[in-house]
Design goal:
By secondary structure, this protein is α+β, with helices and mostly antiparallel strands. It has a single domain, classed as Jelly Rolls (Sandwich). 31% of the residues lie in helices and 24% in strands. It has ten helices and 14 strands. An eight-stranded mixed sheet has the order 1-2-10-7-12-5-4-3. A four-stranded antiparallel sheet has the order 6-11-8-9, with no helix packed on it. Strand 3 and strand 4 (107-117) form a beta hairpin. The longest helix has 26 residues, at 129-154.
Length: 322
């Protein structure tokens, strides 16, 4: 962990959990049992963890980051055909400021958002970009779906229970690539306002330039750099489905480094037509009251985008105050 002005220093007893993907998927029965336990504890206590030994070659990830850099280095005229406004537009490229609050300066970034499952969409340029992205998202989807199996078990369900209940075979996967230019390119505050993600789990990989912070015990904490690791974040629909046991992780980006920062972000969620509420297994029988209103996933995405830009949260609508 790193700390700065407003952050708290963290001791080794409170460092971010590290989950070993190899032991989860290819370890012994005892290995998997321990990792499932650790995974549940990480989701409940931290809301995020670092994933190591995930099996995606570092060369593949770095080629994807380099190709993303090539995309953002294209001229505005070359990128304009990929501009879009709707949250469910298959390809959406945009630039500009995003508000932090009424009294502070806004933060700037450029982004490319691609819907990559159940159908794959990607710009046809620069050359080779689409092929790299297709390979990358298939690999990250495999990792995400294996993690969901472990999360399902950690909640006391069968490993395929969440997959079947949320129709994950037709699930919505997004690839969001965020570009924060160097100070040489753009001399202004760079970053992304505090937010949570839609979906179940978000996989995030950065190019080595720091900036991501998570809210931990009321303090913003910078994430440590674990080599060739993904940061995995609880997302809104994991909180909803678990009826609040696994809270969605609030995070933000504040780029103070002079270098450019590029992040590859993969939210993974249910199918767009799936109505998501607390698992019936957690609330049936009156043992636990539902804490969230059921809502179709596509409707939640539309609502979340509008509320986030207004400084609000979709949970303001779907969370039941009981």
């Amino acid at each position: 962990m790193v700390s700065n002005g407003e952050q708290t220093s963290m001791d080794l007893q409170d460092s971010i959990p590290i989950i070993d993907y190899f032991l989860l998927t290819l370890g012994t029965v005892d290995d998997r049992s321990k990792v499932v336990h650790d995974l549940g504890k990480a989701c409940q206590d931290w809301g995020c963890f670092m994933l190591v030994n995930h099996g995606i070659p570092e060369t593949v990830i770095h080629e994807m980051i380099n190709a993303s850099n090539d995309f953002f280095n294209m001229t505005k005229e070359e990128k304009v055909e990929f501009a879009a406004n709707g949250v469910l537009d298959p390809i959406r490229c945009s630039t500009g400021f995003n508000p932090v609050d009424k009294h502070k300066d806004s933060l700037w970034r450029e982004y490319l958002r691609l819907i990559v499952h159940p159908e794959f969409h990607c710009p046809h340029k620069p050359p080779g970009f689409s092929e790299l992205a297709s390979d990358y998202v298939k690999r990250t989807r495999t990792v995400a779906m294996e993690l969901v199996k472990g999360v399902s078990e950690s909640l006391g369900f069968e490993e395929l229970y969440m997959n079947e209940e949320l129709n994950l075979d037709s699930g919505f996967q997004l690839l969001a690539i965020n570009y924060y230019p160097s100070l040489v390119e753009f001399d202004t505050p760079r970053g992304l306002m505090p937010h949570t993600d839609h979906g179940l789990l978000t996989l995030l990989y950065e190019n080595g330039v720091p900036g991501l912070e998570v809210l931990r015990n009321g303090k913003w904490v910078g994430m440590s750099d674990v080599p060739n690791a993904f940061l995995v974040l609880n997302s809104d629909h994991l909180e909803i489905f678990s009826n609040g046991k696994y809270k969605s992780k609030l995070h933000r980006t504040v780029v103070k480094d002079e270098r450019k920062r590029i992040t590859l972000v993969n939210p993974n969620g249910p199918s767009l037509d799936t109505v998501v509420g607390p698992s019936s297994r957690l609330v049936d029988g009156g043992n636990c009251l539902p804490g969230y209103l059921p809502m179709k996933y596509s409707e939640y995405l539309e609502m979340q985008t509008k509320l986030t830009m207004a400084g609000k949260h979709a949970f303001d609508i779907v969370r039941l105050h009981i």
